[in-house]
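Order emerges. As here.
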Amino acid sequence: MNGICTLANDYVFDQLLALLNSIDAILSKDIPVCIYPFDDQIQKIADEIVKRPNVFIYDDQESINRWDQFMLSAAPERLNRSKFRLYGAHRRFCAFDGPFDKFIYLDADTLVMNSLTTVFEKLDSYDFVVYDFQFKDVSKVYNVNSLKLREIFPQNRIDSEIFCSGFYGSKRGIFNAEQRKSLLLSLQNGEREILYAGAGEQPLLNYMVMRANLSTYNFAQELPSDESTGCSISSKHFEEKEHILYDRGNRLTYLHYIGVPPNIHQAVCAGENIDFPYRELFLYYRYLHEPEKHPVFDHNRQPYDAPPPNFLTRALRKFKLIPQG
């Protein structure tokens, strides 16, 4: 069985609903979707999916514990909740245990924009399939100042095999017990230093795929330049037609709201007029099945990355001496 996977807790509830609704609209309301629990805060999600028979929360506690222990051994510092907002992001690795033979993983802050059939088809020939341009910035995956980096991976692999962990296709069982033990041994013998110090699981997953010599395919590198598309909201030139985005006439496979924190989506859904790229598209899918709940905004938009107001501004707004915004 094939299916879609994501990772979530109640903190990203609004993003998750937008993703699930885009799957409904673009793929099917019947395709199975497995949600890996980021942590134990999943009650809102559990209540929501009662009315979504194709969606379920992964509950194989043995598998969850296995990957928690793997992360604890591989990169314990990334489990520090006070330092890393993404402390539970490694639980997406449970997809390598199941429940799908072939799966496509999407972060909760993504929207499906096109059929994923070609991704599943590539998994007949490759172990790992991605579609992004992260390879252009190695510094968000590996410590580029580490001399050991080029001892482990030749430069041509570093330049070509890096990927973003927000979207990928893979298979059940490619990281078995023997493979996990070998990876941990290499990391504990000094190779951990090549991992980028920030982020959550992305550096580790890149290392795992490359160190295990999995066969990989990146649509962004393999498609002709006039056919490939971007995927990130950092690209401002996408054109929207009937709630689908196009890049120079080519339909996107997915859109990633990378860089917009979940609290921004929460605030917008609560009625705060905060702007971010492709906001209306997000709101369309978030409220696809309940348009009557779409927030109504009544003041000027504020950019999501604007600096916070100073004390005087906050005080003036509190006493309504200047407009809210």
The chain has twelve helices and 14 strands. The mean pLDDT is 92. The radius of gyration is 20 Å. Residues 71 and 90 are 7 Å apart (CA to CA).
